[in-house]
Amino acid sequence: MEGLKVHSSLKTVEWKNNKVVMIDQTKLPNRLEFVEFSDFRQVADAIKNLVVRGAPAIGVSGAFGMALAVLQSNAQTKDNLIKDLEEAKKILIETRPTAVNLKWGLEKIMGVALKGSDVSEIKKLVIDTAKKMADDDVQTNMTMGKLGSELFDDNDVILTHCNAGALATVAYGTALGVIRAAKESGKKVKVIATETRPVQQGSRLTAFELKHDGIDVSLIPDTAVGYSMAKGLVNKVIVGADRILRTGHVFNKIGTYQVATMAKQHGIPFYVAAPLSTFDMKSNPEDVVIEQRKGSEVTGIGENKTAPDDINVINPAFDMTPPQLITGIITEKGVAKPPYEESIKKLFEAN
Ligand code: MRU
């Protein structure tokens, strides 16, 4: 773990020697371990079990899963290879329903595969495209960081929820990328990270990666958001997103809606940072499937049981923050401000 520079020298997910290599995030912050996969089904399991998580990171992992699938296929004809890819896509897409980046990544690869004329061309196109998607992710985050950092001032104390950092992307991060860029531009900023129960992406991942980058971070329990805002300990909020609709409705880690509501109550600007690949311009709020995760995430912390046996549990992984609570949405193409239907449309027209 010593010397870990999560945002620069290490990649959350990477293509190496025809294999997918990723940091096993279930082991953080206690151990920095890498896992290596040569079967797309292993990638699907890794996404499902949160070995890799965060919307952009699972988008790229899905694309790498498809790259493994072309290598695994024995198909001799284009039609058979496309069939194998469709099968892999089905297995990969079923892993997590809410973050739209996964669908985006898989569809992008299918689109490229369909354009290939024969088996060897398709294999090359798929692998090259997946690798390019990983490289583009880092560039996108850095551009978004630079644009977003202008909204932050010297001495800001910024609250963030969950992990929208290097570990949720290939590197650098979305919301934490903006914070990194603010610091790199010479502004002194401090971060308050929520613990983010039940899976604790805030304490295990955000606190970990910011601490390793020398960014001042304090950890709070999720229940201290209201206290921190009421006491004037926070003056801006920034989070990432798993899916943003054309109306500006933002789906993100469970608890984001509470943070946004509390920010509104205290007149604190609430920003979202996400690439255009996180936007779903077709769905309405009621169409979005919120992933429901297993009860054991709530009835215990790690191996320790913290609830009685056989208790009923409701464990949604995401919630929806309505546009009226959001001050601005930072993307690599600019910052969308209310009214979002108009400003988001403009970002896509400029793309
Ligand atoms: O369940 P997770 O850990 O995949 O949830 C992640 C989040 O909700 C992040 O905030 C979101 O994906 C943005 S990541 C840049």
CATH superfamily membership of the largest domain: Translation initiation factor eif-2b, domain 2
Number of helices: 11
Q: Give the percentage of residues in beta strands.
A: 15-25%
Tell me the CATH topology of the largest domain. Rossmann fold
Low-confidence stretches: 1-7
Number of domains: 2
Q: Sum up the overall morphology in one term.
A: globular
The CATH architecture of the largest domain would be 3-Layer(aba) Sandwich
Structural class: alpha/beta
Total E-strand runs? 16
Tell me what the structure shows.
The protein is of the alpha/beta class. It folds into two domains: 13-141, Four Helix Bundle (Hemerythrin (Met), subunit A) (Up-down Bundle); 147-350, Translation initiation factor eif-2b, domain 2 (Rossmann fold, 3-Layer(aba) Sandwich). Helix content is 40%, strand content 17%. The chain has eleven helices and 16 strands. The chain has helices at 40-48, 55-72, 78-93, 100-115, 119-149, 175-184, 201-212, 225-230, 256-265, 296-299, 340-349, and strands at 13-16, 19-23, 34-37, 157-160, 190-194, 217-220, 236-239, 243-245, 250-253, 270-273, 279-280, 300-301, 304-305, 318-321, 328-331, 334-336. The strands form four sheets. Strands 6-5-4-7-10-15-16 form a seven-stranded mixed β-sheet, with helices on both faces. Strands 11-8-9-14 form a four-stranded mixed β-sheet, with helices on one face. α2 runs antiparallel to α3 (78-93), α2 runs parallel beside α4 and α5 packs across α6 (175-184). The model is unreliable at 1-7 (pLDDT under 50). The chain binds 5-S-methyl-1-O-phosphono-5-thio-D-ribulose. 5-S-methyl-1-O-phosphono-5-thio-D-ribulose binds at residues 53-56, 99, 162, 164, 168-169, 174, 201, 240-242, 252-253, 317.
